[in-house]
From TrEMBL:
<dbReference type="InterPro" id="IPR010982">
    <property type="entry name" value="Lambda_DNA-bd_dom_sf"/>
</dbReference>
<feature type="domain" description="HTH cro/C1-type">
    <location>
        <begin position="18"/>
        <end position="50"/>
    </location>
</feature>
<dbReference type="Pfam" id="PF01381">
    <property type="entry name" value="HTH_3"/>
</dbReference>
<protein>
    <submittedName>
        <fullName>Transcriptional regulator with XRE-family HTH domain</fullName>
    </submittedName>
</protein>
<dbReference type="GO" id="GO:0003677">
    <property type="term" value="F:DNA binding"/>
</dbReference>
<dbReference type="InterPro" id="IPR001387">
    <property type="entry name" value="Cro/C1-type_HTH"/>
</dbReference>
Length: 538
């Protein structure tokens, strides 16, 4: 049989069925996630003499005999049946069939030239990662990849009164939702609560396939947030990486406005059932969407504007909220400092994407000097110093055992050298000797600890990080700082996430940023040399 799938495409399908990211498979195989990503993209194919095919097979098949994995096992069996249509394997075990499937793809791919091996299909979540990486360039954007594009006029002139009560397709549902939201915001004086409730229970995003409508919806949502509206987003979580990255997208796009964004997840979900969604403007109107033709996405809906009907939906949403937990936690500055201490007490890897050098890279004596100048109250200073000592102790414990990867913009270090100021800390003016000691200490960390790496962002790729900085500890916590949206609102929104699915999505997000950085700027010897060149300017 001539295998029509490359190894990358074959592996991509298997990962999708298991609901895994490349990083999750890499963790099971005890290899770097970049290897798995190169396999999926077609940049690399395992050699025939290696044990990778056997190892991947063991990982994919592990646990499929358990009762709660029945759906995954059935999906995998269907995939294998389709691939073996010309040459069924009869009574072979599932494990043998998976291994054969991978081996055939491996042989077929190794027979191709380098160009033909490339996986032309977008990897799972790849389009969403691209969207995430670009979201910092503009607040509103259109998704890059859509399975089917539906061209709709971006402006909807229909008045609310003209909306039909029965919405016969997804485009009609989305158009009605935009009309309802715009009308409510334009007439917000008649909507006392300014509350919006959204659910995300479908396997796919509402607007998947409708980029123009998505763009208009995002504009309407951001406009509402700027005017002080409150959005409550209730979502179902699963192992679909793309869905998780969609939620990361919303967190980055909808936080730190005059209004507020609250994201919740269902703690109990019971058995799977056809998708059902709710878009509710409290006191104004509601749209309910249902999956009638397809199981995983809504394709028909109802528009409700009669007072009693809207009240019924409001009561139903209240019941739904009782079965949720907050997915994001907005923190005060003091709580954020305390979070840094508690998260770092748990051993694990540490990935940071920051706009300025982390305090973990500052020599203790300089940190003490800064605190004595910036905190006048002795008791408060003592508490802060205790927190820093605790975190630094955890840092040195982990740096010897776990990967530590930091991403910093070159401009932050250049600004420190040329102006004598930290980009994000205008209150401390270090001396020339302080700056020298700090940068020398940073090079010593890189030299002395193999697990510690720094990637430098130049001005051409600064857009990857310029809106948000975040800190991922192990597989359990993400601390996020969303930068101010405007000079009128200079506050940095501090957020914590501890739910494992979204923490892993942020890890995938970090890994994709890392891989987009020029490899030279990730090379440890280059980074040390570059920092020493800056030291020579002092």
């Amino acid at each position: 049989m001539i295998h029509q799938l490359t190894f990358g495409q074959c592996l991509q399908e298997l990962l999708f069925i298991r609901g895994w990211s490349a990083a999750q498979l890499a963790k099971v195989l005890n290899i770097d996630a970049s290897y798995v990503r190169r396999w999926v993209r077609g940049d690399r194919t395992p050699a025939l003499h290696t044990s990778y095919i056997n190892d991947i097979t063991e990982a994919i098949c592990d646990g499929l005999d358990r009762e709660y994995r029945k759906a995954t096992k059935a999906a995998l069996t269907t995939l294998l049946d389709q691939s073996e249509a010309d040459a069924p394997m009869g009574a072979a075990t599932l494990r043998d069939r998976v291994q054969h499937h991978l081996h055939e793809a491996q042989i077929y791919t190794l027979s191709l030239d380098t160009t033909a091996r490339k996986n032309r299909k977008p990897t799972e979540g790849q389009s969403v990662v691209s969207q995430l990486l670009e979201i910092t360039q503009v607040t509103l954007r259109k998704p890059n990849h859509q399975p089917t594009l539906h061209t709709s006029p971006p402006t909807h002139t229909r008045e609310l009164e003209q909306l039909p009560s029965v919405l016969t397709n997804r485009e009609a549902i989305l158009s009605a939702a935009i009309t309802l939201l715009k009308h409510a915001v334009q007439n917000q004086d008649t909507v006392p609560d300014k509350q919006i409730y959204l659910t995300f229970q479908s396997e796919r995003d509402y607007f998947d396939g409708y980029p123009e409508l998505y763009h208009e919806w995002q504009q309407a949502i951001i406009h509402a947030l700027r005017l002080g509206w409150c959005i409550h987003h209730l979502c179902r979580l699963n192992k679909n990486v793309e869905r998780s990255l969609q939620l990361v997208n919303q967190i980055l796009a909808w936080t730190n406005y005059s209004g507020s964004y609250h994201l919740y997840y269902f703690t109990k979900y019971g058995i799977d059932f056809p998708a059902q969604e709710i878009i509710l403007i409290k006191g104004s109107g509601a749209i309910t969407g249902y999956a009638t033709d397809q199981f995983k996405e809504m394709d028909a809906g109802l528009y409700l504007n009669e007072t009693n009907a809207v009240h019924v939906i409001e009561k139903y949403v209240e019941q739904m909220l009782r079965n949720t937990e907050p997915l994001i936690h907005i923190l005060s500055q003091n709580d954020y400092f305390e979070l840094n201490v508690t998260k770092d007490r748990k051993p694990g890897s540490h990935c940071m994407c920051m706009h300025d050098l982390s305090y973990l890279t500052v020599p203790p004596e300089i940190m003490k000097k800064y605190m004595s100048l910036s905190i006048s109250d002795e008791n408060e200073r003592r508490v802060h110093w205790w927190r820093i000592e605790d975190t630094v102790k955890s840092f040195y414990r982990d740096i010897q055992r776990y990967p530590m990867r930091h991403i910093y913009p070159m401009r932050a270090i250049e600004m420190l050298v040329t102006t004598g100021e930290y980009d994000r800390n205008p209150y401390f003016r270090p001396t020339r000797e302080d700056i020298q000691a700090h940068l020398l200490y940073l090079t010593e960390l890189l030299h002395n600890y193999d697990q510690f790496e720094i990637a430098l962002i130049d001005d051409h790729t600064y857009n990857l990080i310029h809106r948000t900085q975040f800190d991922i500890k192990g597989n359990h916590t993400v601390a996020i700082g969303v930068m101010p949206r405007s000079d009128a609102r200079p506050k940095v929104e501090l957020i914590a996430i501890t739910e494992g699915t979204i923490v892993r999505a942020f890890q995938d997000y970090f890994d994709d940023i890392w891989e987009r950085i020029n490899p030279i700027y990730q090379d440890k010897q280059f980074v040390i040399s570059w920092i020493k060149d800056k030291l020579a300017l002092l």
